Amino acid sequence: MSLLQVEGLGKYYNQQTKVLKDINFEVESGEFISIIGPSGAGKSSLLRCINRMVDISEGHVVFDGEDVGSMKKSELRRLRTNIGMIFQHYNLVPRLTVIENVLHGRFGYKSTLQGVLGRFTEDEKEKAFELLGKLGIADHAYKRCDQLSGGQQQRVGICRALIQEPKLILCDEPIASLDPNSSKIIMDYLRKITNEMGITCLVNLHQVDVAKEYADRIIGLNKGEIVFDGPSNMLYEDR
Ligand code: ADP
Ligand code: ADP
After folding, report:
1. Is the ipTM of this complex over 0.95?
2. Shortest-distance ligand to the CA of residue 19
3. In sequence order, what are the beta bridge partners of 225?
4. Among 20, 124, 173, 205, which is least packed by CB within 10 angstroms?
């Protein structure tokens, strides 16, 4: 069984025009896929339907055998630990430290606010440090997130997703706010997550060249419809 099945997915906001129309694809465990398309194509909406940050208007999203569209609140919480999310603007809590941001990815925001680091066990902190080390930012663990560069903040975002031990990571334009050098670092790490940890990645990108360089498979979206789904080397720049 595939890790993710998207069947006849349709999405509209406020009963208005459909931003996703009859989307069908499957994702196998261990795939690294880039979703490409111009701004407004529906890439972000697609990822948000997969982890139910928005309601599904039509069709089905089946993750790990379960229908995401009919999940209740408690089931959604579990879904979101299995599906990590990485955002264009990092979505960190700026006034918390790096290590606190990573820990609250797994153990909750409130507990961080109440007791800060004291509330976490040594094991939990060790795990967070291990991830920060892997992403090359352990030295910044006690800095406030808003003192880091964009590329460093995105690495914190990756650690926060990874500490949940997700099966799937959804990345919504992870490099759109970064310079080419930081973009390369982030894309290299994302690729490593799939190659070395076996975690499936779906990465929204608007740069076709980056998608072709990193992804095994590309799904092209335009005006809410799939216009390409195949191996990266089958996608031509002039399409
Ligand atoms: P992309 O990520 O490819 O830029 P989006 O999924 O963000 O595409 O947007 C697809 C379309 O849906 C756009 O026309 C956008 O304006 C619209 N849209 C996105 N989010 C909302 C929302 N919360 N309410 C209404 N329309 C939205
Ligand atoms: P970014 O590209 O930085 O993620 P977007 O413009 O795609 O920013 O979306 C920012 C927020 O605005 C999102 O929460 C999205 O759902 C919402 N949004 C996008 N387009 C619309 C729209 N047409 N109407 C209402 N909300 C929208």
Report:
1. no
2. 1
3. 222
4. 124
